[in-house]
Amino acid sequence: MSNLLQIAVLIGSSRPTRIGPLVAGWLTGNLESDEELLDARFSIVDVARFDLPSFNEPVAPRAVENLDRFTHAATRAWNKEIARYDGYIVLSPEYNQGIPGALKNALDFLHHAWAGKPAMVVTYGTFGGGQAGQQLRQVLKDGIGVRVVDITPQLEFPGRDERKHNSSPALSQALAGTVTKDTLDYWKETNGREIVDGARELLRLAKQPR
Ligand SMILES: Cc1cc2nc3c(=O)[nH]c(=O)nc-3n(C[C@H](O)[C@H](O)[C@H](O)COP(=O)(O)O)c2cc1C
């Protein structure tokens, strides 16, 4: 058995042309190569892969302590995966100033698998996705009882042009499912340090009892 802390990096978007997997891969690569974070293993968890329907469990997840009591196989598979981890990095884009509906739905499906564990929120968007981040923090912390790291990195698409409704080439590329090296380099320079600091805090919390 490995003594490494097990941390899930959740991909919060599910549309076919999403950049979520690219951002998650970049984020995870940065975390894995940082010598301050060698006591953890970071695993990407694609929420979309679990194919969860709109919430359809008859009993509120807070009342389900034993995963065998979930009615549906999809919920049991989702619970089994999430319960494996000591902590989470929830990576979310901003959709209409909030989090994607599919991510909120996936969070609602479970309670005990998350509750009391730590999470860091990382968002991306035209202005860094701060409103999605705020919403996500509230759902995780106040709704589910997750211990949320204060540091909340916001990855902003570079080159925003106010005269063009804050559009940017990076945003157009993102809408089409692409992230360029320039954008990743910009995020590394702007947010690299806080991502590592946030992850260190996440690991510190993960070592404390639930
Ligand atoms: C339905 C929809 C709504 C969006 N709303 C916002 C928004 O409110 N704020 C923002 O910064 N970006 C917004 N965007 C742009 C996203 O930040 C950008 O498309 C990003 O690539 C979405 O993440 P994804 O590719 O992983 O789905 C929106 C995109 C979509 C598809």
From TrEMBL:
One example GO MF annotation: oxidoreductase activity
Superkingdom of source: Eukaryota
Domain NADPH-dependent FMN reductase-like: 6-149
Pfam families, A to Z: FMN_red (PF03358)
GO cellular component terms attached to this protein's record: cytosol
InterPro entries: Flavoprotein-like_sf (IPR029039), FMN_Rdtase-like_dom (IPR005025), NAD(P)H-dep_reductase (IPR050712)
Protein name: NADPH-dependent FMN reductase-like domain-containing protein
Organism encoding this protein: Knufia peltigerae
